[in-house]
Amino acid sequence: MATGWAGDGAVQDQIDATVDDAIQRARAQLKQGPGLTHCEHCDAPIPEARRKAVPGVRLCVRCQEEEDAAQQEGSGYNRRGSKDSQLR
Question: Using CA atoms, how far apart are residues 45 and 29, in angstroms rounded to an integer?
Answer without folding.
Answer: 23
